[in-house]
Amino acid sequence: MNDDVARAPQSPELLLAQQVQLLDELRHAQADQQTLLAQLLHEQEAQRKALADALEEIKVADFNMPFVSLVGFLVKASLAAIPASIILAILGFIVFAMLGGGLFALGS
């Protein structure tokens, strides 16, 4: 059976007092959340500053890589550069063709 139907009617003063109490609890909960949020933002800012300071101090002093691995990496990089250079050449040709066509049309 529904609780609302079985519940006896309450006076408006009692209902108002309950609502005031619930609103007060909500206000306290919201204040707690705002305090927690302020603390978290402060911690986040401190961590961001610490990370920024740590990143500024990084210096590479030595690079130690086996010769065979270095040769393999350079071969892969050179093979990857071939299609990239073809694509860039095609894009450059299209751009220069458009510019040349536009300049030719202006000159005519």
Tally of alpha and pi helices: 3
Number of strands: 0
Radius of gyration: 35 Å
- Mean pLDDT equals 87
* Shape descriptor: elongated
- Could you state the order of secondary-structure elements as H and E? HHH
**N-end to C-end Cα span:** 90 Å
Q: What summary fits the major beta sheet?
A: none
Beta strand %: under 5%
Describe the structure.
The chain has 108 residues and is an all-alpha fold. The chain contains three helices and no strands. It has helices at 3-6, 12-56, 67-107.
Index terms:
108 residues; 83% helix; mainly alpha; 0% strand
Sequence-ordered SSE layout with sheet pairings:
Blueprint: H1 3-6, H2 12-56, H3 67-107
Short summary of the structure?
83% of the residues lie in helices and 0% in strands. The chain is mostly helical and 108 residues long.
